[in-house]
Amino acid sequence: MAVLSWPYGLLKTTLKELTMNDYKTKRTPIHTYDLDRKPIVLVPLGGNIANGQHAKLLKKDYEELLSRGYSPNWCLMDDGSGRNQYVTLYDRMKENQVKVPRLIMSASTDQVIRYMDGNRLNLRRDNLHLQDRERHVTQIMEKKANAR
Asked: What does the domain layout of the chain look like in residue ranges?
């Protein structure tokens, strides 16, 4: 185990070694099965706009995120326009909120996440699609041009 020295001779583990057990769960997730009988987790969301909503993802993806040390406490955020909402969690290493679908899909910075059913709370892998950011922008511009 790697350790850091702290004042008064105390030892503390590094941030990389912190796990889900180091977080206090604020809202209890619901473990259940989806219509296709696959095990899922409904994660209750915090934040001002959550209003009791849950994010849905496959159980194995949820467990993978926790095993990587991510927080079990998730929030629903928006981009300020009111149009785009997204699910985030706190990343201790980055000391910032990160988008959960990007973690699930291991998206790079030049990729965007598309939601096949349009539901941004459905974080099942079969609902998430990676798209090249440049192609995504091109599609948006074409759509705007055709709307005129």
From this structure: 19-147
